[in-house]
Design goal:
The structure holds two protein chains of two kinds. Chain A contains 16 helices and 31 strands. By secondary structure, chain A is α/β, with parallel strands linked by helices. Helices cover 21% and strands 27% of the residues of chain A. A four-stranded antiparallel β-sheet of chain B has the order 2-3-1-4. In chain B, a hairpin with a 5-residue loop joins β2 and β3. The chains are: A alpha/beta, B alpha+beta. β9 of chain A pairs antiparallel with β5 of chain B.
Chain lengths: 627, 87
């Protein structure tokens, strides 16, 4: 991407410390909609042969070839009418996520001159293996195909899996293909990174709920695309879009969709609903639409541009002709100008970019917690850039609905774009710590994150249910100091506590043992997770204790002291001082949180920070009451 | 066509691959399907086999066949293969 890595401190080229030879032996598995192999982002020039551990294949179908960067590809989608039956990316999405995670460094890339910069992945020297499970239209992605992708990716020997796919709701693990695949990946030492979902800001909308998955929420970055609208009276309002079309400042007559229909009621016409606009009334004009997803209706009726109202102006989208999406207030400004002017005119300018001082702020669309399946496991886990990300794309896919352009790089938004950033960071950390388990990498990312706080924006008001542990900080994550480990055995014990006993325990664990009495009685909140969460009864006095063990991955002979930040929880840490004689030594402690429960639907949080003066290991503690 | 309409693709999850060296996932999946469907040919039934990193398969099943499979000792869960979305 051309900005997001700089935003989080992973600078280009020599400015960032790397392990080139290890990075070159790192393989990222991308389960998505395929890939555009001819992209400069996936060019194999300068790469040696694939790593020895690689056991995958290049089965991309006709006219598809791999190289030493894109070392393997498989596809699990059926032949669809009008689409090549191959691993080619017919949606642009797979190319975008792959390049964000591990794409080459490609200079001087932009979207028709916008967002110009150097596109790169988190680990540009790593290799990419692609597993295609999605096609456009109603086919979407299938659960059975996704599980085949996991089955192959794990066996092929990838190091990290990035999967920006999810259902429309969360499910218990045993009927959740993402959770099943990721569990077996974890058991083989592979971390799965998954997008949290785009159903925010409503509560409990995170669809990726398993503790062995690193679940990613989306934020903005410090670069935003804005599009000015200049009215005939000279007044200017600033809207959001990635508008590459230049009207050269020419002003056109304004017309409101509501009064440009001869076939629909006022409301649907105001929405510019399909079939409602009369081309005779909109041709050659700028149309005001109450709903931003219908602007292509105005375009098809001959409008030269559209100004739309949007309830979501915290990100900018690509449109197929000049559009600016305004907040309600600004939209009403335009409406009142139009209603009070005899010949109202306006123009929509080509977008430009501005610096967003307040970033990172959680995106409105990013799904929120709490975890609907395991209430005492916090989700999402971490936040990364997901809005207005410029990365590789497939020219076989339109960059927006009804768009006739073909681009190799485009701007996209969603937790789909946040997820591969974390996959890239996970791979980056793994190059410094090749033997670290998935849980150690996950812990390093969570406990070193930039803290975000609810007061920066109303969109953060759900605090840790919006941004988890905070925003990823790749440079600090290399040296977390302490990590919370949870291996396959710990997760199996966790499942025992959730009544995965008997047959299911035996089958999932793959060994003939059964849950011990202690395991059966274990509480989910005592999984050695880098955050601590408990659901309590609203307003009633509560007292919960979390048991945790940390592993020293910093220096020998070091003393960590516990500090609690945030004062609306009464917290006792025992012991509050931990002395580590050696590296990889483990120490256990308890955290007891007490007080009166929050009101229904509310949460109270604080942070436990272990510090040795060099490292600061921060864990969110969240107490909430269900409604 | 009506017979087909009663069927949908289900995922049959069977946990980890047994450690036995002589275990042959594909044969096991095939024999389970033949047993449950009573059909010798499973060509129109078996959609996918998971046999490299974990155990299980995807197949076109009726609801009653799903229930039988779910109760089997060697099956963890049987659930519909849903449509998922890019995010």
């Amino acid at each position: 991407t051309t900005r997001s890595w700089d935003f989080m401190g992973l600078k280009e080229g020599k400015k960032t410390k790397r392990k080139p030879s290890i990075e070159s032996n790192t393989i990222i598995g991308v389960i998505d909609s395929g890939i555009y192999p001819e992209s400069d982002s996936f060019n194999g020039k300068g790469f040696g042969p694939p790593p020895k551990k690689w056991k995958g294949v290049c089965e991309g179908g006709k006219n598809f070839s791999c190289n030493n960067k894109l070392i393997g590809v498989r596809y699990y989608t059926p032949k669809l009418e009008g689409l090549p039956h191959s691993a080619r990316d017919n949606m642009g999405h797979g190319s975008h996520t792959a390049s964000t995670a591990a794409g080459n460094t490609v200079k001087d890339v932009s979207f028709y001159g916008l967002g110009n910069g150097t596109v790169r992945g988190g680990v540009p020297a790593a290799r990419i293996a692609v597993y295609k499970v999605c096609e456009p239209g109603i086919f979407g992605c299938t659960g059975d195909g996704m599980l085949s992708a996991y089955d192959d990716a794990i066996a092929d020997g990838v190091d990290i899996i990035t999967i920006s796919i999810g259902g429309d709701s969360s499910s218990p693990f045993e009927v959740d293909p993402t959770a099943i695949g990721a569990f077996h990946a974890m058991a083989k030492g592979i971390l799965t990174v998954n997008s949290a979902g785009n159903s925010g800001p409503e509560r409990s909308t995170v669809t990726s709920v398993a503790p062995w998955i690193l679940t990613v929420a989306a934020s903005n970055t410090n670069r935003a695309f804005v599009t000015k609208v200049v009215l005939g009276d000279g007044k200017t309002v600033v809207g959001r879009s990635v508008n590459t079309f230049d009207l050269n400042g020419t002003k056109y007559p304004l017309v409101y969709g509501r009064s440009a229909s001869t076939s629909c009621g006022a409301a649907s016409a105001g929405f510019c609903s399909p079939g409602c606009l009369d081309s005779k009334l909109v041709k050659g004009k700028i149309v005001l639409c109450d709903f931003e997803l219908n602007t292509d209706e105005a375009q098809s009726m001959g409008a030269v541009a559209s100004i739309t109202k949007s309830s979501r102006v915290d990100f900018a989208s690509v449109f197929s002709f000049p559009v600016s999406a305004l907040s309600e207030d600004d939209y009403n400004t335009v409406l009142s100008y139009m209603n009070s002017t005899k010949n109202p005119k306006a123009t929509v300018l080509k977008s430009d970019t501005i610096f967003k001082q307040t970033a990172p702020v959680t995106a409105t669309y990013s799904s929120r917690g709490p975890n609907a399946i395991i209430p005492d496991i916090l989700k999402p886990d971490i936040t990364a850039p997901g809005s207005e990300i410029l990365a590789a794309y497939s020219p076989d896919a339109p960059p927006s609905q009804s768009d006739t352009r073909h681009v190799k790089y485009s701007v996209a938004t969603g937790t789909s774009m946040a997820c591969p950033h974390i996959a890239g960071v996970a791979a980056y950390i793994k190059t410094f710590h090749p033997r670290w388990s998935p849980s150690m990498i996950k812990s390093a990312i969570m406990t070193t994150a930039w803290s975000m706080n609810a007061s920066t924006s109303p969109f953060n008001e759900m605090a840790e249910f919006a941004y988890g542990a905070g925003h990823v900080d790749p440079i600090t994550a290399i040296h977390p100091g302490l990590v919370y480990e949870a291996n396959k055995h710990d997760h199996i014990a966790f499942l025992c506590g959730l009544n995965y006993t008997g047959k299911n325990f035996r089958l999932i664990s793959g060994d003939s043992s059964s849950c011990t009495k202690e395991q059966t009685k274990s509480l989910p909140r005592n999984l050695n997770y880098p955050s601590m969460t408990a659901q309590v009864s609203a307003t009633k006095p509560f007292k919960v204790t979390f048991r945790r063990t940390v592993t020293n991955v910093g220096m020998p002979n070091t003393t960590y002291k516990a500090k609690v930040v945030g004062d609306n929880l009464k917290v006792k840490v025992v012991p509050s001082v931990l002395f580590f004689k050696s590296v990889y030594e483990k120490k256990s402690f308890t955290v007891t949180v007490s007080g009166n429960g929050p009101e229904a639907d509310k949460l109270m949080s604080a942070h436990l920070i272990w510090s040795d003066g060099v490292h600061s290991v921060r864990s969110p503690m969240v107490i909430y009451a269900a409604n | 066509a009506k017979y087909d309409q009663d069927k949908q693709v289900y995922i049959v999850y069977m946990g980890a691959l047994p450690a036995r060296v002589d275990y042959m996932p594909m044969s096991h999946h095939t024999s389970i399907l033949q047993q449950v469907t009573g059909e010798s040919s499973i060509e129109n039934r078996l959609v996918r086999s998971y046999k490299r990193s974990f155990n299980g398969f995807a197949a076109r099943l009726t609801e009653s066949e799903r229930e039988i499979l779910a109760s089997m000792e060697e099956v963890v869960s049987v659930f519909p293969s849903k449509k998922l979305m890019l995010q």
